[in-house]
Design brief:
The longest helix is centred in the C-terminal third of the chain and has 22 residues. Strand 15 and strand 16 form a beta hairpin. The chain is globular, with a radius of gyration of 22 Å. It is 14% helix and 32% strand. It is an alpha+beta fold. It has one domain. Helix 1 packs antiparallel against helix 3. The protein is built from 3 helices and 17 strands. The two termini are 14 Å apart.
Length: 301
């Protein structure tokens, strides 16, 4: 086999190895009755090497009150998962928050690509504090919500987080988080995570509805985010195949006494990212092509 053919095969194998990613996808729904009603949320965790991407979305109905705003997600990294009754051992890992953004290149298991979220200024013509127009990408901070969301690690068996989870991401203090730490600007004072600011409205939200705690006051609208956001975290070591994401909780509102959905458990699923064929078929195709080329050359010889 020629050097050129070997090089092409090596490049092809590298591309095939990137043709799929391990996703842990969670969907939760719960009916709370009264003015809260039915709530629904989604989260997709994508580990790759020492990176962990978390996509979070509010897929509930129109938001009227703060306890319908999705403000946090909590989770564990676990090993030896065998089902909800035997969820395995929790891997205590302090992660490093890198970024929080309105942008997403994730293709959900449903085939949907959520692309760009947006800030929602409720009062027409009156920008919310820190409002950024996603149609005008002319600043370094465009789409960056890192100063309004925080990550925290809750070690040990005495975690105060929902479900005793060890990892959390939140836009609200909840009595658990301090300042935003995803390397972004403080879009609205104070520096500490404050109330429902920059929480997630639902995909079906109507910005003309909601009480004043959601819409804000005249000339001072509440800055919130439509539908979804994406978070990047660094792991201290490379992700191991035997690890999974489990014990996921969705938190709404500004207190851990507000509505929660959890715990959620799920098996890891492999989903194609950019190449429609599984990596095994991709490699098989490369091998077949190489063999065909070699046979053709031998015939010519």
């Amino acid at each position: 086999m020629s050097r050129r053919m070997i090089l092409l095969l090596l490049i092809g194998m590298l591309l095939c190895s990137q043709a799929h990613a391990l996703l842990f996808s969670f969907s939760g729904t719960k009916s709370f009755g009264g003015e809260v009603g039915d709530l629904a949320a989604q989260a997709v965790f994508t580990p790759a090497g020492q990176d962990l991407e978390v996509w979070l979305g509010n897929v509930g109905p129109d938001v009227w009150i703060p306890s319908q705003v999705l403000t946090a997600v909590f989770f564990d990294i676990r090993q030896g998962y065998q089902g909800p009754t035997n969820p395995g051992l929790t891997i205590d890992q302090l992660l490093t928050p890198e970024s929080a953004s309105l942008l997403s290149d994730l293709v959900l298991p449903s085939g949907e690509n959520p692309a760009v979220a947006r800030f929602v200024p409720y009062e027409s013509g009156v920008p919310a504090p820190g409002y950024l127009d996603p149609n005008v990408a002319d600043t370094d901070y465009q789409y960056n919500i890192g100063g309004e969301w925080a990550y925290r690690y809750f070690p040990g068996a005495t975690s105060p987080a929902p479900g005793g989870t060890t990892q959390g991401i939140s836009s609200s203090g909840l009595g658990l988080f301090g300042d935003g730490n995803f390397n972004g600007p403080d879009l609205a004072p104070p520096n500490a995570l404050d109330g429902v600011q920059y929480g997630l409205l639902s995909i079906d939200d109507d910005p003309t509805t909601g009480n004043q705690k959601v819409t804000g006051a005249e000339n001072n609208p509440q800055p919130l985010i439509w539908y979804h956001a994406t978070y990047q975290l660094d792991l201290p070591v490379a992700w191991e195949d035997r690890w999974t994401i489990q014990n996921v909780w969705f938190q709404y509102g500004t207190s851990t006494s507000d509505p929660q959905i959890g715990p959620l458990y799920v098996e890891g699923v492999s989903a194609q990212a950019a190449v429609p064929e599984p990596a095994s078929l991709c490699l098989l195709g490369l091998a077949s092509g190489a063999i065909a080329t070699m046979v053709k050359k031998r015939k010519k010889a």
